[in-house]
Each structure stands twice: as structure tokens, then as C-alpha cells.
Design a protein that fits this description.
This protein is an all-alpha fold. The protein is built from 3 helices and no strands.
Length: 65
């Protein structure tokens, strides 16, 4: 926040991202494609777990009758 406050703005209402450029949001994030791939993989795993639990619940429900 201190860096943002110390950056001079000639117009008085400029965009911080324009002023700082690539340094505006430093970090080690994932690319969008990598993130989508990871989320699809996780979704497939969760769906398999859900389906397994549905089958187990049906089996135990039948067995208890």
C-alpha cells in the first residue's frame, strides 16, 4: 500500500495498474489453462467419489430392509 501511495499520478485519478505495469500484482500464480486443467481433474475426482458414495448408500439402504 505504501508503494501505491508514493506513485505520482499526473492526472490525479490514474489507474494504478497502468502506472506500475507488471509490478502491480507480483506473485507466482497459475496460468489460466493450467488452472482450468487442474479444476477439471479435481471435478472428475469429486464426481467419482460422489458416485461411489451414492452406490454405497443404496447398498446399505437395501441391506437394512
Amino acid at each position: 500500500m505504501t508503494n501505491w501511495e508514493s506513485v505520482p499520478d499526473s492526472s490525479g485519478a490514474g489507474d494504478t495498474n497502468e502506472i506500475l505495469g507488471k509490478d502491480a500484482f507480483p506473485g507466482k500464480g497459475m496460468s489460466r489453462d493450467d488452472e482450468v486443467t487442474a479444476l477439471k481433474r479435481e471435478l472428475a475426482k469429486v464426481k467419482k467419489e460422489r458416485d461411489f458414495l451414492k452406490e454405497a448408500a443404496a447398498y446399505f439402504a437395501k441391506e437394512s430392509k
